[in-house]
Amino acid sequence: MDRKKKLIVAVTGASGAVYAKVLLDQLLALSDQLREVGVVMSDNARQVWEYELGNRYFDNYPFTFYGKNDFNAPFASGSARYETMVIAPCSMGTLGRIAGGISNDLITRAADVILKERRRLIAVVRDTPFNLIHIENMRTVTLAGGIICPANPSFYSLPSSIEEVAGTVVSRVLDLAGFDVPGYRWNEGD
Ligand SMILES: Cc1cc2nc3c(=O)[nH]c(=O)nc-3n(C[C@H](O)[C@H](O)[C@H](O)COP(=O)(O)O)c2cc1C
């Protein structure tokens, strides 16, 4: 049986484009564990990436990019059997639409499909502070089987650059997605 993963990466317009960049960079290095990577970005994701990272390098990744309204993308249907979806960063707007079942674009439809098929949805939510609506939406997505993995970096690995800080979150995401990844593990002397 083919153990390589079919993965959806969604990038939305929350602050933290660096999380998407580090995730996509690390996926390049994990190509031997991947069968397919489908990427979809919201309009605001492109805008925030350009603003925060000062480039449009997302155009250079050798993954398959789908338009935000492309419901012909394979993972708009459960039949395509993508087993994991990571939304990084995940805006409160996208979180709310997923929690409300409003599948009005490819990102929210793909998340809806992943949840209905009981597959793995990992939402790297980013905002601070949270209002009650955000908290209730995180609760709803959790009850539906999704994993809320906030963009909360850790510092015990002594990261020395913004990308290393972002990497502390991304390595948790890759662990949750079931990849075999090296990385800093507390008190394992890595
Ligand atoms: C520079 C910038 C930073 C933003 N940061 C956040 C954020 O951290 N969290 C959030 O939920 N929305 C943030 N937003 C607002 C979202 O981009 C906006 O709500 C958008 O409608 C989300 O849509 P999307 O999820 O389809 O990208 C930010 C917008 C801009 C322009």
Report what the structure shows.
This protein is an alpha/beta fold and about 190 residues long. It has helices at about 15-30, 45-55, 90-100, 105-115, 130-145, 160-175, and strands at about 5-10, 35-40, 65, 85-90, 120-125, 145-150. It contains 6 helices and 6 strands. The chain has a single domain (about 5-175), classed as Rossmann fold (3-Layer(aba) Sandwich), CATH 3.40.50.1950. The relative contact order is 0.18. A 6-stranded parallel sheet has the order 3-2-1-4-5-6, with helices on both faces. Bound molecules: flavin mononucleotide (FMN). Flavin mononucleotide binds near residues 14, 15, 47, 51 and 127.
Helix/strand-derived category reads alpha/beta
Number of helices: 6
**Under CATH, the topology is which?**
Rossmann fold
Average predicted local confidence, pLDDT: 95
Enzyme class: transferase
EC number: 2.5.1.129
GO molecular function: flavin prenyltransferase activity; lyase activity
Protein name: Flavin prenyltransferase UbiX
Write the layout of secondary structure elements.
Blueprint: E1 5-11, H1 17-29, E2 34-41, H2 43-53, E3 64-66, E4 84-90, H3 92-99, H4 106-116, E5 120-125, H5 132-143, E6 147-148, H6 162-176
Parallel strand pairs: 1-2, 1-4, 2-3, 4-5, 5-6
EC number: 2.5.1.129
GO molecular function, one term: flavin prenyltransferase activity
Catalytic activity: dimethylallyl phosphate + FMNH2 = prenylated FMNH2 + phosphate
